[in-house]
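Key idea: predict the complex, not the pieces.
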Amino acid sequence: MAETKTLSKKAIRKAYWDWMIFNLSVQNFERMEGPAIVRMLANVREELYPGDKEKQQEMLERHTIFFNTEPFLGCIIPGIVLGMENEMAKGGDVQPEFINAIKTALMGPFAGIGDSLLPGTLCPILLSIALGLCQNGEIIGPLFYILVFLGIMFPLTWFLFSYGVKAGASAAEMVLAGGIKDQVTKAAETVGLIVVGAVTASYTHVNIGLVYTSGDLAINIASILDSILPGVSVLIVSLIAYVLMVKKKWTVNKMMILFLIIAIVGYFTTILTV
Amino acid sequence: MSFIQALLIAFLGWSSSIYGITVGGGLTGWYTLGRPLISGFLIGIIMGDVQTGIIMGAAIQMLYIGLVTPGGSMPADVNFAAWIGIPLAMAAGAGEEFALALAVPLSTLGVFAVYGLCAINLFFVHKQDAYIEKGELEKAARIPIIGQVTNFVMRFFPILIINYLGSGLVTTLVEMMPVWLTDILQIFANMLPLVGFMLLMRTLVKKDLDIIYFILGFILVSVLNLGMIPIVIIAAVIAYLKYQTSVKGA
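Result:
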């Protein structure tokens, strides 16, 4: 790697906050998060090309393209972009096309990793712990989530972003070549699935109200079902919802309407109860 | 609901929408204050009943616990559902099943707001291009701040207006509701979290057999009554074993 001067810590911090705050601020159909990359680079333009307005303009122009990823775990990408721009500005052997090629190559993998790890795994895990802590409305539930989530995410995103800035293109090569993405995603998916199963059992209820009476004998269907497998009614409804929403790609609204119909029919036939 | 209360709720609702910037961006906004459990906590503080706020927030949270927005698409909107649904249900003195019932139409309204915003913001994207071309780089940098105005209009005003004007109407509606209707809403609300979970499953399931992990997690709670932390540890061990066998197999 060519001998390059690193950016000042102040510039890296400025770029980090620009990205963290404004990544989705002007979300749009054409460029998605592109305008935020422009803002981030524009605000450190004097550090990269001091006084050279033409070079600054050129740099921003090449970033007026589509960019979309999961913004927080994917914050390593704007970090890498900044690192590579800096390397090029300081005379390193980096072609402008290469910066955009790396940016585009990374955004897909990080959208996948980010979505399955952040809203897909970390949030549901922390939220379900938090929900368990405040079943009677205790303040500890929301406070737990706020402290733990931000306590994990701010150091982690700062690490990813500043690592991207320092390592530049070599960080990109590591991610793209090492198959890290596949392994991390697979592990996150397995953990995620088990957690979702657990959360489903905790927070979904399908109460069977049916009582079979024959003479003096009254048989409570719910307790029979529970003796076979606790929560089996919820499990059956879950599997039906799985087939409809995951396999048959039903929309959210369609699924909700079906549940509403089930609730109405179930209530009036007394099969279901509150 | 007083105007000041509606105003505070509208400000926080706008700030914690997915594209909001005013409380420090997506980590503190969308991913923290924007989670219905936390929204409910804040609404509770504003409305003077923290406990009810948290309980309502928890109910809405279950519905959206698995909300993932892959590739910028919005399968459901949690923002209006929380910042309008919770205050209205609280103002009416209704139960959480009422907040959940409100969540359904509000979520649809919110999805429209998202797609409308993504179309309108094209204007700002081209404005930024023009500034760069003219060499007005400082103005180009400011576009993500100025462009936030779309999100402000799409979030702040609906939340303010519906909360301020709607609470009286909703109170009357709740008082008129017969028992059978609230019972049906409760049965419905009991099943609703599944919608969120299945949305999440779409991104997690790669092949049909993966469903066994879901069933395992389910049984750990329904049969063994385990808490969330032991379950996460078990899940991590299984993921590690799976990783080990895949390394050996390769």
